Amino acid sequence: MAEKLSENIIRDTATAVGVALSEEDVAYISAQFEGFSVLENEAADMRYSADEILYHAQSVGHGGKARCDLRDLVSDLHAGRATSLRVTEDCFERMTTRKDLNNFISENRDAGIAAAKRADVLLASGRGGELCGVPIAVKDNINVKGLPVTCASRIFSEAKAASSAECVKRIEEAGGVIVGKTNMDELAMGSTDESSAFGAVKNALDITRVPGGSSGGSANAVAARQAVCALGTDTGGSIRQPAAYCGVVGLKPTFGAVSCDGLVGFVPSLDTIGVLAPDCDSAGIVFGVMSGRKLAPANAELFGKTIGIADEFASGEIASDEVRKQFENAIAFAAEHGARIVRVRLPSFTAALAAYHVLSSAEAATNILASVPKNKLASTGGEVRRRIVAGVLAGGCELYEKARNVRERLCREYAEAFGYCDVLLSPTSPTTATVLGASRDPNKSHYGDYFLAPASLAGLPAASVPFGDTVLPVGIHIVGNYGCEQTVLDIGSALEYKAATK
Hints:
By secondary structure, this protein is an alpha/beta fold. Helix content is 39%, strand content 11%. The longest helix is centred in the C-terminal third of the chain and has 23 residues, at 349-371.
């Protein structure tokens, strides 16, 4: 389907499924399908050089030990140097004083304070789990017993969840204090957190900018210290992109490593529950609790590690000058501190974003149309309506099979690449946080996930860590092999918060 999709076909499809589209929406979908023409191109065969090519290392400055907020806090709580009640009350106070950020759809104030008091009793008696007394926020598409689960959409009632998601149960069993449900893009469809039915989220570092999405409320809550850590979901970049925009760490685990029981899913074949945290070590602790696979403390050691840089990461002019500069500094920092830098090939990488949107929209449209009455679709926002119609169109044409082929090839390419390196490094997002309400070219509107969607298609663990001394945060993206969250977080810990060359 390289030719332009007929706008009449788009209108007829929208009418058939009961979705109202504006003329702007129709033009958007038409332009999006023009962009899908990248799927028509067959990827070149993989060619690896037998020689490992070392990048020229620059001398870069770097900060001290990465912050380990969660481990330090837990130590203070158990030693009696802090109380959960005080820490939790401080989080609620910041929610009150920074309501302008709009990070939370619902607060869990009374129950949270009660849980903090119980945690203090356990701590005083020398008991308590790994997260005892730690304030944690939860994205509003993950069930928490007794709290609403709106998915930031008016189509869901205000009924409260009858039970908690499996990952939340594990957090609570470890003593975590749930402080509230965070704002998000409607039905997790979006990358700015502007599509929420409860209003846009504003970046804590610059309120004129977006926090990223769809887990922007969770990332922003951690950045604003309204929670120590937060749970988010990642389908094609929805944890890692807001982590980059908000200057925090975002971990997307291996697909299936954390149970999605109790998640109101967007695309079940891709959805992953992960963590937003102040640092890699903290993310590892929360991941360990949720997955039942305890990790060692993050080891910020690069010596002996092999880091792969795919030629395709530099394709075109995707990244801004500032992001490119910090990425080059991150490579130089890694090389200077003992890592071996090698070039690898991922020929299907440049088609992965288009494949992601074809597959995810088709699956999401099928799920929504099967579960949501037609008369409720009218109350959804533009992003959801566009994805439903685009998904129906994509699922019924040859694009879908082409996208599946790209996904299969990409998995094989990653597997071969990991024969040469421990992790792959790239920018997280092509730009820093964008301005609220900024208009975008339809063909470029989803490019915030350009570096992220491929790892999601392959189900690989990945993290975004803040790097560099910049006005707005820049994220570095680290992708590991299946089950290698420890390696990803170790290398992330060595990079996070390091200052680049002035």
